[in-house]
Amino acid sequence: MGTVEGSALVARAIQKEGITTLFGLAGGPIVEIMGYAAQFGVRPIGVRHEQAAAFSAAAYGFVKNEVGVCVLAAGPAVTNGLTGAHVAFDNCFPMVILGGSGPQHGRYTGTFQETDNVPMFRGITKMSVQVDSAARIPDYMSMAFRKARSGRPGPVYLDLPSDVLQKQVEEDEVHWPENYFADAPPMGNAEQVRRAADLLLNADRPAMIVGKGVRWSEPTAELKRLIETLGMPFIPSPMGRGFIPDDHPLNAAAARSTLMQGADVVLMVGARMNWMFDFGRRFAADAKIIQVDIEPEEIGINRGIEVGIVGDAKAVLRQLLAELEGKTDGMADRAEEGPWLTAIREKAEANSASIEPLLNADESPIRTFRLLKEIRDVFPRDTIYSVDGQITLGTGRQVLQSYTPASRLNSASNGCMGVGVPFAVGAKLARPDVPVVSLNGDCAFGFNAMEMETAVRHKIPVVFIINNNSGIVGGNLESRMGLPDNYDERVATYTPDIRYDKIMEAFGGHTESVSSPDELRPALQRAYEATKAGKVACVNVISEHMETMITRSTRASALMGY
Ligand code: ADP
Description:
The chain is α/β, with parallel strands linked by helices. The chain has 22 helices and 19 strands. It has three domains: 171 residues, Thiamin diphosphate (ThDP)-binding fold, Pyr/PP domains (Rossmann fold); 158 residues, 3-Layer(aba) Sandwich (Rossmann fold), CATH 3.40.50.1220; 201 residues, Rossmann fold (3-Layer(aba) Sandwich). Helix 1 packs across helix 2, helix 9 crosses helix 12 and helix 15 packs across helix 16. It is globular, with a radius of gyration of 24 Å. About 2% of the residues have low confidence. Adenosine-5'-diphosphate binds next to strand 12.
Protein backbone atom coordinates (compact mmCIF):
# COMPACT_ATOMS: atom_id res chain seq x y z
CA MET A 1 0.00 0.00 0.00
CA GLY A 2 1.17 3.53 -0.73
CA THR A 3 0.64 6.84 0.99
CA VAL A 4 -2.27 9.21 0.70
CA GLU A 5 -2.56 12.95 1.29
CA GLY A 6 -4.94 14.41 3.92
CA SER A 7 -6.81 16.47 1.30
CA ALA A 8 -7.43 13.32 -0.74
CA LEU A 9 -8.92 11.61 2.32
CA VAL A 10 -11.37 14.49 2.77
CA ALA A 11 -12.45 14.28 -0.88
CA ARG A 12 -12.74 10.50 -0.76
CA ALA A 13 -14.90 10.69 2.38
CA ILE A 14 -17.30 13.05 0.58
CA GLN A 15 -17.46 10.65 -2.36
CA LYS A 16 -18.02 7.64 -0.10
CA GLU A 17 -21.01 9.45 1.37
CA GLY A 18 -22.56 9.51 -2.10
CA ILE A 19 -22.38 13.29 -2.33
CA THR A 20 -21.70 14.51 -5.84
CA THR A 21 -21.34 18.29 -5.47
CA LEU A 22 -18.96 20.38 -3.36
CA PHE A 23 -19.27 24.16 -3.04
CA GLY A 24 -16.23 26.32 -2.35
CA LEU A 25 -13.87 29.08 -3.39
CA ALA A 26 -10.45 27.75 -4.25
CA GLY A 27 -7.76 28.98 -1.85
CA GLY A 28 -5.14 27.71 0.55
CA PRO A 29 -5.09 25.30 2.26
CA ILE A 30 -8.23 23.64 0.88
CA VAL A 31 -7.65 24.05 -2.83
CA GLU A 32 -6.41 20.49 -3.18
CA ILE A 33 -9.63 19.16 -1.63
CA MET A 34 -11.49 20.68 -4.57
CA GLY A 35 -9.02 19.15 -7.02
CA TYR A 36 -9.19 15.70 -5.48
CA ALA A 37 -12.98 16.00 -5.35
CA ALA A 38 -13.08 16.25 -9.14
CA GLN A 39 -10.77 13.22 -9.37
CA PHE A 40 -13.21 11.23 -7.23
CA GLY A 41 -16.29 12.25 -9.23
CA VAL A 42 -17.47 14.99 -6.86
CA ARG A 43 -18.14 18.14 -8.87
CA PRO A 44 -16.47 21.22 -7.33
CA ILE A 45 -18.51 24.39 -7.83
CA GLY A 46 -16.33 27.48 -7.56
CA VAL A 47 -18.33 30.38 -6.12
CA ARG A 48 -17.45 34.09 -5.87
CA HIS A 49 -17.90 34.53 -2.12
CA GLU A 50 -17.77 31.94 0.66
CA GLN A 51 -21.13 33.04 2.04
CA ALA A 52 -22.64 31.81 -1.22
CA ALA A 53 -20.77 28.48 -0.93
CA ALA A 54 -22.48 27.81 2.37
CA PHE A 55 -25.89 29.04 1.16
CA SER A 56 -25.74 27.00 -2.04
CA ALA A 57 -24.68 23.89 -0.11
CA ALA A 58 -27.57 24.39 2.34
CA ALA A 59 -30.13 24.66 -0.48
CA TYR A 60 -28.59 21.76 -2.37
CA GLY A 61 -28.97 19.57 0.73
CA PHE A 62 -32.57 20.65 1.31
CA VAL A 63 -33.67 20.13 -2.28
CA LYS A 64 -31.80 16.85 -2.75
CA ASN A 65 -32.51 15.48 0.71
CA GLU A 66 -28.89 14.92 1.56
CA VAL A 67 -26.08 16.64 3.43
CA GLY A 68 -24.82 19.82 1.75
CA VAL A 69 -21.03 20.19 1.82
CA CYS A 70 -18.95 23.33 1.41
CA VAL A 71 -15.27 24.05 1.79
CA LEU A 72 -13.84 27.38 2.91
CA ALA A 73 -10.21 28.47 2.59
CA ALA A 74 -8.84 30.02 5.82
CA GLY A 75 -9.24 33.09 8.01
CA PRO A 76 -11.63 35.55 6.29
CA ALA A 77 -12.86 32.79 3.98
CA VAL A 78 -13.99 30.84 7.00
CA THR A 79 -15.62 33.83 8.70
CA ASN A 80 -17.42 34.55 5.41
CA GLY A 81 -19.05 31.15 5.77
CA LEU A 82 -20.36 31.79 9.29
CA THR A 83 -23.68 33.22 8.07
CA GLY A 84 -24.31 30.02 6.13
CA ALA A 85 -23.77 27.98 9.29
CA HIS A 86 -26.20 30.26 11.09
CA VAL A 87 -28.81 29.81 8.34
CA ALA A 88 -28.38 26.02 8.33
CA PHE A 89 -28.55 25.85 12.13
CA ASP A 90 -31.68 27.99 12.38
CA ASN A 91 -33.42 26.10 9.58
CA CYS A 92 -32.27 22.65 10.79
CA PHE A 93 -30.52 21.86 7.49
CA PRO A 94 -27.90 19.07 7.43
CA MET A 95 -24.60 20.50 6.31
CA VAL A 96 -20.88 19.81 6.67
CA ILE A 97 -18.69 22.89 6.58
CA LEU A 98 -15.00 22.21 6.02
CA GLY A 99 -12.79 25.13 6.98
CA GLY A 100 -9.08 25.50 6.39
CA SER A 101 -6.76 26.85 9.06
CA GLY A 102 -3.09 27.53 9.68
CA PRO A 103 -0.65 24.73 10.56
CA GLN A 104 -0.98 23.07 13.95
CA HIS A 105 2.75 23.40 14.51
CA GLY A 106 2.56 27.17 14.04
CA ARG A 107 -0.12 28.01 16.62
CA TYR A 108 0.15 31.55 18.00
CA THR A 109 3.19 32.45 15.87
CA GLY A 110 1.24 34.66 13.50
CA THR A 111 0.98 32.30 10.54
CA PHE A 112 -0.96 33.52 7.51
CA GLN A 113 -4.70 33.82 8.24
CA GLU A 114 -4.33 32.15 11.63
CA THR A 115 -7.76 32.20 13.27
CA ASP A 116 -9.34 30.30 16.12
CA ASN A 117 -12.27 29.01 14.07
CA VAL A 118 -13.71 26.31 16.29
CA PRO A 119 -15.21 28.58 19.01
CA MET A 120 -16.75 30.86 16.36
CA PHE A 121 -18.92 28.04 15.07
CA ARG A 122 -19.89 26.59 18.46
CA GLY A 123 -23.20 28.38 18.98
CA ILE A 124 -24.38 27.83 15.41
CA THR A 125 -23.50 24.19 14.69
CA LYS A 126 -24.23 20.78 16.19
CA MET A 127 -20.49 20.15 16.47
CA SER A 128 -17.43 22.28 15.86
CA VAL A 129 -14.08 20.58 16.15
CA GLN A 130 -10.56 20.61 14.76
CA VAL A 131 -9.27 17.49 13.02
CA ASP A 132 -6.11 16.42 14.85
CA SER A 133 -4.41 14.08 12.39
CA ALA A 134 -4.57 13.12 8.74
CA ALA A 135 -5.07 9.42 9.49
CA ARG A 136 -8.23 10.24 11.46
CA ILE A 137 -9.84 12.36 8.73
CA PRO A 138 -12.30 9.59 7.72
CA ASP A 139 -13.31 9.20 11.39
CA TYR A 140 -14.05 12.89 11.72
CA MET A 141 -15.86 13.01 8.40
CA SER A 142 -18.15 10.13 9.40
CA MET A 143 -18.85 11.85 12.72
CA ALA A 144 -19.69 15.04 10.86
CA PHE A 145 -22.08 13.33 8.44
CA ARG A 146 -23.77 11.36 11.23
CA LYS A 147 -24.22 14.46 13.39
CA ALA A 148 -25.48 16.56 10.49
CA ARG A 149 -28.05 13.99 9.45
CA SER A 150 -29.17 12.30 12.67
CA GLY A 151 -32.06 13.42 14.87
CA ARG A 152 -32.74 17.08 14.18
CA PRO A 153 -30.52 17.87 11.21
CA GLY A 154 -28.04 20.72 11.39
CA PRO A 155 -24.60 21.96 10.36
CA VAL A 156 -21.25 20.63 11.57
CA TYR A 157 -17.95 22.48 11.32
CA LEU A 158 -14.67 20.62 10.81
CA ASP A 159 -11.50 22.68 11.06
CA LEU A 160 -8.69 21.40 8.86
CA PRO A 161 -5.17 22.65 9.64
CA SER A 162 -2.91 23.00 6.61
CA ASP A 163 -0.33 20.52 7.90
CA VAL A 164 -3.03 17.92 8.51
CA LEU A 165 -4.32 18.37 4.96
CA GLN A 166 -0.88 18.27 3.40
CA LYS A 167 0.41 15.30 5.37
CA GLN A 168 1.05 12.03 3.55
CA VAL A 169 -0.03 9.00 5.59
CA GLU A 170 0.31 5.30 4.97
CA GLU A 171 -2.97 4.00 3.52
CA ASP A 172 -3.04 1.11 6.02
CA GLU A 173 -2.93 3.56 8.94
CA VAL A 174 -6.22 5.00 7.78
CA HIS A 175 -9.39 3.54 9.24
CA TRP A 176 -12.60 3.93 7.20
CA PRO A 177 -15.72 3.66 9.40
CA GLU A 178 -18.64 1.67 7.98
CA ASN A 179 -22.35 1.50 8.82
CA TYR A 180 -22.39 4.59 10.97
CA PHE A 181 -26.05 5.59 10.58
CA ALA A 182 -29.14 4.19 12.28
CA ASP A 183 -31.24 2.84 9.45
CA ALA A 184 -34.71 3.01 11.03
CA PRO A 185 -36.42 6.30 11.86
CA PRO A 186 -37.56 6.73 15.49
CA MET A 187 -41.23 5.82 16.13
CA GLY A 188 -43.53 7.68 18.51
CA ASN A 189 -44.67 6.42 21.88
CA ALA A 190 -47.73 4.20 21.23
CA GLU A 191 -49.81 5.62 24.11
CA GLN A 192 -49.18 9.19 22.99
CA VAL A 193 -50.15 8.27 19.43
CA ARG A 194 -53.43 6.78 20.76
CA ARG A 195 -54.15 9.98 22.69
CA ALA A 196 -53.40 12.09 19.61
CA ALA A 197 -55.76 9.96 17.51
CA ASP A 198 -58.52 10.37 20.12
CA LEU A 199 -58.11 14.11 20.14
CA LEU A 200 -58.31 14.30 16.35
CA LEU A 201 -61.35 12.01 16.22
CA ASN A 202 -63.21 14.14 18.74
CA ALA A 203 -62.18 17.56 17.46
CA ASP A 204 -64.79 19.99 16.12
CA ARG A 205 -62.24 22.22 14.38
CA PRO A 206 -59.06 20.24 13.77
CA ALA A 207 -56.12 21.80 11.93
CA MET A 208 -52.64 20.76 10.88
CA ILE A 209 -49.47 22.78 10.53
CA VAL A 210 -46.80 21.38 8.24
CA GLY A 211 -43.23 22.61 8.59
CA LYS A 212 -40.07 22.03 6.63
CA GLY A 213 -38.97 19.37 9.13
CA VAL A 214 -41.05 16.94 7.03
CA ARG A 215 -38.47 17.34 4.29
CA TRP A 216 -36.19 14.61 5.57
CA SER A 217 -38.59 11.66 5.67
CA GLU A 218 -40.97 13.23 3.12
CA PRO A 219 -44.28 11.79 4.32
CA THR A 220 -46.25 13.23 1.39
CA ALA A 221 -48.68 10.30 1.05
CA GLU A 222 -49.22 10.13 4.83
CA LEU A 223 -49.89 13.88 5.18
CA LYS A 224 -52.41 13.76 2.35
CA ARG A 225 -54.18 10.69 3.68
CA LEU A 226 -54.42 12.12 7.16
CA ILE A 227 -56.02 15.42 6.14
CA GLU A 228 -58.31 13.72 3.64
CA THR A 229 -59.61 11.03 5.98
CA LEU A 230 -60.34 13.60 8.69
CA GLY A 231 -61.38 16.50 6.43
CA MET A 232 -58.77 18.54 8.30
CA PRO A 233 -57.56 21.88 6.91
CA PHE A 234 -53.86 22.68 7.06
CA ILE A 235 -51.39 25.51 6.66
CA PRO A 236 -47.79 25.05 5.60
CA SER A 237 -44.91 27.11 6.97
CA PRO A 238 -43.07 29.25 4.36
CA MET A 239 -40.76 26.38 3.40
CA GLY A 240 -43.17 23.62 4.39
CA ARG A 241 -45.06 24.29 1.15
CA GLY A 242 -45.37 21.72 -1.59
CA PHE A 243 -45.26 18.59 0.54
CA ILE A 244 -49.02 18.75 0.13
CA PRO A 245 -49.65 20.62 -3.15
CA ASP A 246 -50.72 24.22 -2.56
CA ASP A 247 -53.90 23.73 -4.59
CA HIS A 248 -55.21 21.00 -2.31
CA PRO A 249 -58.77 21.96 -1.33
CA LEU A 250 -57.90 21.62 2.37
CA ASN A 251 -55.09 24.18 2.14
CA ALA A 252 -56.09 27.07 4.40
CA ALA A 253 -53.01 29.26 3.84
CA ALA A 254 -55.21 32.05 2.54
CA ALA A 255 -57.18 31.97 5.80
CA ARG A 256 -54.25 31.58 8.16
CA SER A 257 -55.60 33.70 11.01
CA THR A 258 -59.04 32.09 10.85
CA LEU A 259 -57.45 28.67 11.10
CA MET A 260 -55.05 29.59 13.89
CA GLN A 261 -57.63 31.41 16.00
CA GLY A 262 -60.47 28.96 15.43
CA ALA A 263 -58.91 25.49 15.70
CA ASP A 264 -59.72 23.43 18.78
CA VAL A 265 -57.11 20.73 18.08
CA VAL A 266 -53.87 21.56 16.27
CA LEU A 267 -51.49 18.92 14.96
CA MET A 268 -48.00 20.38 14.38
CA VAL A 269 -45.65 18.29 12.30
CA GLY A 270 -42.04 19.29 11.68
CA ALA A 271 -42.60 22.95 12.57
CA ARG A 272 -41.61 25.04 15.57
CA MET A 273 -43.79 27.26 17.74
CA ASN A 274 -41.49 30.22 17.13
CA TRP A 275 -42.11 33.72 15.71
CA MET A 276 -43.46 32.19 12.53
CA PHE A 277 -46.48 30.84 14.39
CA ASP A 278 -46.68 33.75 16.80
CA PHE A 279 -45.12 31.61 19.57
CA GLY A 280 -48.42 29.74 19.71
CA ARG A 281 -50.22 32.82 21.08
CA ARG A 282 -52.59 33.17 18.16
CA PHE A 283 -54.15 29.79 18.77
CA ALA A 284 -57.17 29.83 21.10
CA ALA A 285 -56.13 29.64 24.75
CA ASP A 286 -57.97 26.34 25.16
CA ALA A 287 -56.85 24.81 21.84
CA LYS A 288 -55.21 21.43 22.32
CA ILE A 289 -51.83 21.09 20.67
CA ILE A 290 -50.39 17.82 19.41
CA GLN A 291 -46.73 18.33 18.57
CA VAL A 292 -44.70 15.85 16.54
CA ASP A 293 -40.97 16.51 16.41
CA ILE A 294 -37.84 14.42 16.22
CA GLU A 295 -36.16 16.67 18.80
CA PRO A 296 -37.45 16.04 22.35
CA GLU A 297 -36.28 19.44 23.56
CA GLU A 298 -38.54 21.17 21.05
CA ILE A 299 -41.75 19.79 22.52
CA GLY A 300 -43.72 22.36 24.51
CA ILE A 301 -41.57 25.38 23.73
CA ASN A 302 -43.54 28.65 24.09
CA ARG A 303 -46.91 26.95 24.36
CA GLY A 304 -48.12 24.10 26.54
CA ILE A 305 -49.08 20.98 24.63
CA GLU A 306 -51.71 18.30 25.17
CA VAL A 307 -49.72 15.52 23.50
CA GLY A 308 -46.04 15.58 22.56
CA ILE A 309 -44.78 12.84 20.29
CA VAL A 310 -41.06 12.49 19.83
CA GLY A 311 -40.33 10.73 16.57
CA ASP A 312 -39.84 10.95 12.86
CA ALA A 313 -42.71 12.65 11.02
CA LYS A 314 -43.31 9.79 8.58
CA ALA A 315 -43.08 7.05 11.20
CA VAL A 316 -45.44 8.87 13.55
CA LEU A 317 -47.95 9.76 10.82
CA ARG A 318 -48.06 6.10 9.83
CA GLN A 319 -48.71 5.11 13.43
CA LEU A 320 -51.42 7.74 13.65
CA LEU A 321 -53.07 6.54 10.45
CA ALA A 322 -53.00 2.94 11.72
CA GLU A 323 -54.63 4.09 14.95
CA LEU A 324 -57.36 5.93 13.03
CA GLU A 325 -58.03 3.00 10.71
CA GLY A 326 -61.73 2.05 10.67
CA LYS A 327 -62.71 4.96 12.95
CA THR A 328 -63.06 7.79 10.47
CA ASP A 329 -66.01 6.70 8.31
CA GLY A 330 -67.90 9.70 6.98
CA MET A 331 -65.72 12.22 8.84
CA ALA A 332 -64.38 13.87 5.70
CA ASP A 333 -67.86 14.24 4.19
CA ARG A 334 -69.26 15.69 7.39
CA ALA A 335 -66.34 18.12 7.55
CA GLU A 336 -66.94 19.22 3.97
CA GLU A 337 -70.47 20.30 4.87
CA GLY A 338 -69.64 21.57 8.35
CA PRO A 339 -69.20 25.13 9.63
CA TRP A 340 -65.43 24.87 10.20
CA LEU A 341 -64.40 24.28 6.60
CA THR A 342 -67.11 26.64 5.38
CA ALA A 343 -65.76 29.51 7.53
CA ILE A 344 -62.20 28.85 6.38
CA ARG A 345 -63.14 28.72 2.72
CA GLU A 346 -65.21 31.89 2.89
CA LYS A 347 -62.31 33.74 4.48
CA ALA A 348 -59.82 32.30 2.00
CA GLU A 349 -61.97 33.37 -0.93
CA ALA A 350 -62.40 36.89 0.46
CA ASN A 351 -58.64 37.22 1.02
CA SER A 352 -57.84 35.93 -2.45
CA ALA A 353 -60.38 38.30 -3.98
CA SER A 354 -58.77 41.26 -2.17
CA ILE A 355 -55.52 40.87 -4.10
CA GLU A 356 -57.17 40.14 -7.43
CA PRO A 357 -57.15 43.79 -8.65
CA LEU A 358 -53.43 44.06 -7.86
CA LEU A 359 -52.66 40.86 -9.75
CA ASN A 360 -54.16 42.43 -12.86
CA ALA A 361 -52.89 45.99 -12.27
CA ASP A 362 -51.91 47.63 -15.54
CA GLU A 363 -49.94 50.53 -14.12
CA SER A 364 -46.36 51.45 -14.82
CA PRO A 365 -44.15 51.17 -12.85
CA ILE A 366 -45.16 47.58 -12.51
CA ARG A 367 -46.87 46.44 -9.31
CA THR A 368 -45.13 43.56 -7.55
CA PHE A 369 -48.36 41.56 -7.52
CA ARG A 370 -48.62 41.85 -11.31
CA LEU A 371 -45.05 40.64 -11.69
CA LEU A 372 -45.84 37.69 -9.43
CA LYS A 373 -48.95 36.81 -11.37
CA GLU A 374 -47.03 36.73 -14.65
CA ILE A 375 -44.32 34.55 -13.10
CA ARG A 376 -47.00 32.23 -11.72
CA ASP A 377 -48.61 31.93 -15.13
CA VAL A 378 -45.42 31.41 -17.16
CA PHE A 379 -43.58 28.77 -15.10
CA PRO A 380 -44.86 25.17 -14.73
CA ARG A 381 -46.06 23.39 -11.61
CA ASP A 382 -42.78 21.71 -10.79
CA THR A 383 -40.82 24.99 -10.71
CA ILE A 384 -38.58 25.55 -7.70
CA TYR A 385 -38.86 29.13 -6.42
CA SER A 386 -36.13 30.78 -4.40
CA VAL A 387 -37.62 34.03 -3.11
CA ASP A 388 -35.74 36.75 -1.24
CA GLY A 389 -36.36 40.30 -0.04
CA GLN A 390 -39.00 41.72 2.22
CA ILE A 391 -41.71 43.02 -0.14
CA THR A 392 -40.98 40.27 -2.64
CA LEU A 393 -41.18 37.59 0.02
CA GLY A 394 -44.32 38.93 1.69
CA THR A 395 -46.20 39.29 -1.58
CA GLY A 396 -44.69 36.18 -3.17
CA ARG A 397 -46.08 34.13 -0.30
CA GLN A 398 -49.57 35.15 -1.39
CA VAL A 399 -49.24 34.56 -5.12
CA LEU A 400 -46.64 31.94 -6.06
CA GLN A 401 -47.73 28.37 -5.53
CA SER A 402 -45.65 25.27 -4.75
CA TYR A 403 -46.79 21.81 -5.67
CA THR A 404 -43.85 19.49 -5.12
CA PRO A 405 -41.65 18.69 -2.08
CA ALA A 406 -38.81 21.08 -1.28
CA SER A 407 -39.69 23.39 -4.16
CA ARG A 408 -39.98 26.55 -2.08
CA LEU A 409 -36.86 28.21 -0.74
CA ASN A 410 -36.69 31.49 1.12
CA SER A 411 -35.04 33.21 4.04
CA ALA A 412 -37.23 31.11 6.36
CA SER A 413 -36.40 30.78 10.05
CA ASN A 414 -33.89 33.58 10.48
CA GLY A 415 -34.94 35.95 7.72
CA CYS A 416 -31.48 35.96 6.19
CA MET A 417 -31.36 38.23 3.16
CA GLY A 418 -29.06 37.35 0.32
CA VAL A 419 -30.03 33.69 0.07
CA GLY A 420 -32.15 34.08 -3.08
CA VAL A 421 -29.38 33.84 -5.69
CA PRO A 422 -27.12 31.15 -4.12
CA PHE A 423 -30.07 29.04 -2.94
CA ALA A 424 -31.24 28.91 -6.55
CA VAL A 425 -27.78 27.83 -7.73
CA GLY A 426 -27.76 24.99 -5.18
CA ALA A 427 -31.36 24.04 -6.03
CA LYS A 428 -30.72 23.80 -9.77
CA LEU A 429 -27.67 21.60 -9.20
CA ALA A 430 -29.78 19.35 -6.97
CA ARG A 431 -32.70 19.21 -9.45
CA PRO A 432 -31.41 19.94 -12.98
CA ASP A 433 -34.63 18.40 -14.30
CA VAL A 434 -36.97 21.19 -13.17
CA PRO A 435 -37.06 24.97 -13.78
CA VAL A 436 -35.55 27.09 -11.01
CA VAL A 437 -36.57 30.73 -10.57
CA SER A 438 -34.65 33.04 -8.27
CA LEU A 439 -36.88 36.02 -7.47
CA ASN A 440 -35.19 38.80 -5.56
CA GLY A 441 -35.91 42.25 -4.28
CA ASP A 442 -33.11 44.57 -5.41
CA CYS A 443 -31.66 44.86 -1.90
CA ALA A 444 -31.62 41.08 -1.42
CA PHE A 445 -30.17 40.62 -4.90
CA GLY A 446 -27.22 42.87 -4.08
CA PHE A 447 -25.81 40.53 -1.46
CA ASN A 448 -24.83 37.73 -3.81
CA ALA A 449 -25.44 39.06 -7.33
CA MET A 450 -21.96 37.91 -8.44
CA GLU A 451 -23.15 34.32 -8.10
CA MET A 452 -24.88 34.80 -11.43
CA GLU A 453 -21.38 34.47 -12.86
CA THR A 454 -20.96 31.18 -11.00
CA ALA A 455 -24.19 30.03 -12.65
CA VAL A 456 -23.02 31.08 -16.13
CA ARG A 457 -19.56 29.55 -15.75
CA HIS A 458 -20.83 26.23 -14.44
CA LYS A 459 -23.81 26.18 -16.84
CA ILE A 460 -26.51 26.21 -14.17
CA PRO A 461 -29.52 27.56 -16.09
CA VAL A 462 -31.52 29.50 -13.52
CA VAL A 463 -33.89 32.40 -14.30
CA PHE A 464 -32.83 35.27 -12.01
CA ILE A 465 -35.52 37.94 -11.65
CA ILE A 466 -35.00 41.26 -9.90
CA ASN A 467 -38.06 43.01 -8.51
CA ASN A 468 -36.27 46.33 -8.81
CA ASN A 469 -38.09 48.85 -6.65
CA SER A 470 -34.95 50.86 -5.96
CA GLY A 471 -34.55 50.35 -2.26
CA ILE A 472 -35.13 48.58 1.00
CA VAL A 473 -38.80 47.90 1.77
CA GLY A 474 -39.73 49.28 -1.59
CA GLY A 475 -38.06 52.61 -0.95
CA ASN A 476 -40.42 53.81 1.77
CA LEU A 477 -38.15 52.97 4.70
CA GLU A 478 -36.30 56.29 4.56
CA SER A 479 -39.40 58.16 5.61
CA ARG A 480 -39.58 56.03 8.77
CA MET A 481 -35.89 56.06 9.69
CA GLY A 482 -35.88 59.33 11.56
CA LEU A 483 -33.26 60.94 9.34
CA PRO A 484 -32.83 64.71 9.94
CA ASP A 485 -35.10 67.01 7.92
CA ASN A 486 -33.82 67.69 4.42
CA TYR A 487 -31.17 64.97 4.71
CA ASP A 488 -29.84 64.79 1.19
CA GLU A 489 -28.09 61.42 1.00
CA ARG A 490 -29.85 58.21 0.11
CA VAL A 491 -29.47 55.62 2.85
CA ALA A 492 -32.20 53.07 2.20
CA THR A 493 -33.10 53.93 -1.38
CA TYR A 494 -30.80 53.16 -4.23
CA THR A 495 -29.92 54.80 -7.51
CA PRO A 496 -33.25 54.57 -9.32
CA ASP A 497 -33.91 52.01 -12.00
CA ILE A 498 -30.50 50.35 -12.10
CA ARG A 499 -30.04 48.06 -15.13
CA TYR A 500 -29.04 44.92 -13.23
CA ASP A 501 -29.49 42.95 -16.44
CA LYS A 502 -26.29 44.61 -17.69
CA ILE A 503 -24.38 42.60 -15.08
CA MET A 504 -25.66 39.44 -16.69
CA GLU A 505 -24.81 40.84 -20.12
CA ALA A 506 -21.21 41.14 -18.94
CA PHE A 507 -21.31 37.52 -17.79
CA GLY A 508 -22.65 36.31 -21.12
CA GLY A 509 -26.13 35.14 -20.13
CA HIS A 510 -29.56 35.92 -21.57
CA THR A 511 -30.92 39.31 -20.46
CA GLU A 512 -34.26 41.09 -20.31
CA SER A 513 -35.16 44.54 -19.04
CA VAL A 514 -38.82 45.29 -18.41
CA SER A 515 -40.57 48.47 -17.36
CA SER A 516 -44.17 48.07 -18.47
CA PRO A 517 -46.65 45.32 -17.54
CA ASP A 518 -47.39 44.17 -21.07
CA GLU A 519 -43.69 43.40 -21.67
CA LEU A 520 -43.57 41.09 -18.65
CA ARG A 521 -44.98 37.86 -19.98
CA PRO A 522 -43.04 37.76 -23.26
CA ALA A 523 -39.82 38.63 -21.42
CA LEU A 524 -40.35 35.91 -18.83
CA GLN A 525 -41.22 33.42 -21.55
CA ARG A 526 -38.06 34.27 -23.50
CA ALA A 527 -35.99 33.90 -20.33
CA TYR A 528 -37.58 30.55 -19.57
CA GLU A 529 -36.92 29.35 -23.13
CA ALA A 530 -33.29 30.49 -22.85
CA THR A 531 -32.82 28.35 -19.73
CA LYS A 532 -34.34 25.37 -21.54
CA ALA A 533 -31.58 25.85 -24.09
CA GLY A 534 -29.02 25.79 -21.28
CA LYS A 535 -28.44 29.53 -20.83
CA VAL A 536 -28.64 31.44 -17.58
CA ALA A 537 -31.15 34.30 -17.71
CA CYS A 538 -31.63 37.59 -15.88
CA VAL A 539 -34.83 39.64 -15.99
CA ASN A 540 -34.60 43.12 -14.48
CA VAL A 541 -38.08 44.45 -13.70
CA ILE A 542 -38.48 48.11 -12.81
CA SER A 543 -41.32 48.04 -10.30
CA GLU A 544 -43.32 50.34 -8.06
CA HIS A 545 -40.91 52.18 -5.74
CA MET A 546 -43.37 52.74 -2.95
CA GLU A 547 -45.02 49.33 -3.07
CA THR A 548 -46.51 48.37 0.23
CA MET A 549 -47.52 44.95 1.40
CA ILE A 550 -51.18 44.52 2.03
CA THR A 551 -53.44 42.56 4.32
CA ARG A 552 -52.00 39.36 5.75
CA SER A 553 -48.39 39.94 4.86
CA THR A 554 -48.09 43.12 6.96
CA ARG A 555 -48.49 40.87 9.97
CA ALA A 556 -45.21 39.13 9.20
CA SER A 557 -43.03 41.91 10.60
CA ALA A 558 -45.20 42.19 13.69
CA LEU A 559 -44.75 38.50 14.33
CA MET A 560 -41.00 38.43 14.53
CA GLY A 561 -41.04 38.91 18.25
CA TYR A 562 -39.20 42.20 18.68
P1 ADP B 1 -40.62 25.70 9.81
O1 ADP B 1 -39.76 26.91 9.61
O2 ADP B 1 -41.09 25.09 8.57
O3 ADP B 1 -41.72 25.93 10.82
P2 ADP B 1 -38.59 24.71 11.56
O4 ADP B 1 -37.26 24.68 10.91
O5 ADP B 1 -38.88 25.85 12.48
O6 ADP B 1 -39.69 24.57 10.42
O7 ADP B 1 -38.82 23.40 12.38
C1 ADP B 1 -38.58 22.15 11.83
C2 ADP B 1 -38.75 21.15 12.95
O8 ADP B 1 -38.79 19.85 12.38
C3 ADP B 1 -37.60 21.15 13.95
O9 ADP B 1 -38.09 21.35 15.25
C4 ADP B 1 -36.96 19.77 13.78
O10 ADP B 1 -36.50 19.22 14.99
C5 ADP B 1 -38.10 18.97 13.22
N1 ADP B 1 -37.70 17.81 12.42
C6 ADP B 1 -36.61 17.65 11.66
N2 ADP B 1 -36.60 16.44 11.08
C7 ADP B 1 -37.71 15.82 11.49
C8 ADP B 1 -38.27 14.53 11.25
N3 ADP B 1 -37.67 13.65 10.45
N4 ADP B 1 -39.44 14.22 11.85
C9 ADP B 1 -40.05 15.11 12.67
N5 ADP B 1 -39.57 16.33 12.94
C10 ADP B 1 -38.42 16.69 12.35
